[in-house]
User: What shape does this take?
Amino acid sequence: MYTVLAGGGGAARFLRGLTRLVPPSEVLAVVNVGDDLTHLGLRVCPDLDSITYWLAGVVHPEQQWGRAEETHVVASELERFGHEAWFTLGDRDLATHLHRTLRLSQGASLSEVTAEVTRAFGVDLRLLPATDDPVETRITTVDDRDLHFQEYWVRERGRPEVASVRLAGAEHAVPAPGVVEAIESAEVVLLAPSNPVVSIGMILAVPGIRAALERTAAPVVGVSPIIGGEVVRGMAHRLLPAVGAEVSAVGVARHYRQLLDGWVIDHADAALADEVRDLRIACAVTDTMMDDVEVAAALAGTCLDLAASARTQAGR
Ligand code: FO1
Assistant: This one.
């Protein structure tokens, strides 16, 4: 089993590449759920849905979340009633949230509903939420406001300066069924180039998951989400300083150092490879900007090669 810790868009591209190399049935992604929210009474899981839509080939091509060929009839009708309009749910996307909310209200777990959603979209790799329990990424701003991640990122457009990040509820959460086993029995564990603080950070905050990563016999290889000192998309550059990490390919490796056997960085950061190796982490340099599926597949191949050499070196 190839087990991948995943956030949203970057992880989705990476998984698309990986499944060009290995059978999707052998891939399992453990996905961040800290971005999830209940909006207008509906349970919305942005990272689970973005990955599903990407892999099903129905993601909105510019937004890279939500559905392609989307319409917004319901959203505009809702404005009539004065509902908050800062978070938009398209008509096609709404069907996913309606189904999920209904099934959760009937007592199904988020993992069960996720399996139903991926099956309905013909996605044949396994997606597991990191936990079935509620965990919410909360951002405390320097002016001391406590915001849900989506309030910070969408409503306030990521503008407020971040003082700290809190994963509310994480301490009481348990890993979703199959998560710990997927890490312990993996052939390789991969950290997708996702946000280290709110995406991978959320997954690692669920008690038992970090320990499983430290225990697993599988090599753990990650891809830097920072290229040439910049994030490709998103807000990791605003959040890394809040956890004391440097915004660079080596800064993120240092942040993960207890976990990593290998770290893959972009050509733009080739000069940092020796600093990564000084952390006793094997390092490979390649093209990590996944503009198309071929680059993503080559990147996944580099990760698997690095994992194989880490395994040989460790005599595993
Ligand atoms: N991002 C936005 O910038 N504006 C939105 O109105 C918005 C709605 C939305 C609805 C469903 C969904 O799955 C994702 C949505 N996103 C929206 C994206 C989301 O806020 C973030 O990009 C992720 O949470 C970060 O990974």
